[in-house]
Every structure is written in structure tokens, then in C-alpha cells.
Write a structure and sequence with these properties.
Thrombin, subunit H, 2 domains, 2 helices, 34% strand, globular, transmembrane helix, membrane, transmembrane
């Protein structure tokens, strides 16, 4: 970006696909690598600016199956490592700057975790929430009151 020019990169990996409208949520740089964090794309990609190569770090097609959820719900960096919350397998995957898997952590949720989340969101009258597939407008109707003049 500092040179204000566009670079023509190589081809996308074979079998790359975007499942819905938005393929990637963000680009994250670690060292000399840029990682394309998938939203509905089927792959976590590593872009190497020095040689314009695009590599597949992980293909989520096998984990996804018929699941239409996003692949990575959250990603962050720490100590030159990329941490990805895999929304399909419910684990945190850790990659080094070369795209190698370093480790992963499985997450366990309490039995009532999602019920408590929903309860908190629906009862929070201090914030506005948009309609989505997860929270359809019908869920909010019972919290709307009409004031007559």
C-alpha cells in the first residue's frame, strides 16, 4: 500500500469456492505472510507478497458438510501466531507465520450456555439488534409494546 500500486497475484487454489456472498472477513499479516480469513469461503489462504503466491492453509469443505455456518467466527494474532476460532469444529486452531498448524484447542460449552446467551441478548433493552437468521424479528415481537396516543 505504501507504493500505491496493485499487484497481480497468481491464481486462486484449485477447488477454491465461496459458499455465500462474502468470502473473507479480513486479511491478517504475520511476518511476511498475509492470511485471508474465511467467512463463507471454503479455505484459509496464505498470501506471500514477495513471490505473489497464494497457498491453501486449510480447506474447510470436509468439516462443513451440509453445514452453512461461517468457517471462522473470530481470528487474532499473538506472538507471531494466528489463532482461528473454527466455527464448524468448535475448536481454536493455531498457525505459525508459514501456515503450519502449531496446535489446536477443543472448546466445551456449558449445557445452558446458548440459552443464557439468548436470554441476555433478548432482554438487553439498552442496545438495538438487527434481524438475522439466528435472531429473526419474530423473537423480538413479544418485547415490543405499542403506546397509544
Amino acid at each position: 500500500m505504501s507504493k500505491n500500486k496493485m499487484i497481480d497475484y497468481g491464481r486462486m487454489p484449485e477447488q477454491f469456492a465461496i459458499k455465500k456472498v462474502i468470502g473473507f472477513s479480513s486479511l491478517v499479516q504475520i511476518g511476511n505472510s498475509i492470511f485471508a480469513i474465511p467467512l463463507w469461503a471454503n479455505m484459509l489462504l496464505r498470501i506471500i507478497p514477495s513471490n505473489t503466491e497464494i497457498q491453501t492453509v486449510k480447506n474447510y469443505d470436509e468439516e462443513r458438510g451440509n453445514n452453512e455456518e461461517i468457517a471462522i467466527s473470530c481470528a487474532w494474532t499473538k506472538n507471531r501466531k494466528l489463532y482461528c476460532m473454527n466455527n464448524l469444529s468448535k475448536c481454536i486452531e493455531v498457525y505459525d507465520e508459514n501456515g503450519n498448524t502449531v496446535e489446536f484447542f477443543h472448546l466445551t460449552f456449558a449445557n445452558n450456555f446458548f440459552k443464557q446467551m439468548e436470554k441476555q441478548i433478548l432482554h438487553n433493552k439498552e442496545a438495538l439488534f438487527g434481524e438475522s437468521e439466528i435472531f429473526p424479528i419474530g423473537s423480538y415481537i413479544r418485547y415490543i409494546s405499542v403506546k397509544e396516543n
